[in-house]
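In this supplementary section we document a worked example of the pipeline. Step one takes a protein sequence of length 168 as its only input; no multiple sequence alignment statistics are reported here. Step two produces a three-dimensional model, which step three serialises into structure tokens for compact storage. The input and output of this example are shown verbatim.
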Amino acid sequence: MRRRCHACASERFRASGKFRVNANHKLIDAWLLALCTGCGETAKLTVLERMNVRSVRPELLDRLHDNNPDLTAELLQDPVVQRRNRIALDWDNAWRLDTGGSDQLADEAIDVSVRFAARIPVRPVRLIAEGFGFSRAEVERLLTDGNLVSAVRLSGKLSGDFTFTLKR
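The serialised model returned by step three reads:
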């Protein structure tokens, strides 16, 4: 994730997978601990802030106390947590398009189905360009010529499953 470190010039953190929970009478605070990739400094990302203990679901408390890794992933993708802590997820090198080799490029048409394991925002034009070894301008040209067809708009960003057909 991207966030400026207070101790060094690094702008990248990684989640430690550990939570810190603190209760003061009837109020509870919870943080996700993140480590700076440059110096190792620990930052606390606020998950719960001064909430009444009774208003927090018991299963959430259990997951916080158990340092649940799935909860870490869920919270990092939550826009409220991102905004509150001024972080942005770093998706560099988080995806790839497996085209099955160059044998398929000789086919008349290639049907490709893209599935997301997580909601990663990606530019389909960039994904297709890198996956097939084209330039982005070439992919844009394929789009305008009607040789790259999809039910969804391929310009812009997508974070949900989609399919496309590449005609040669």
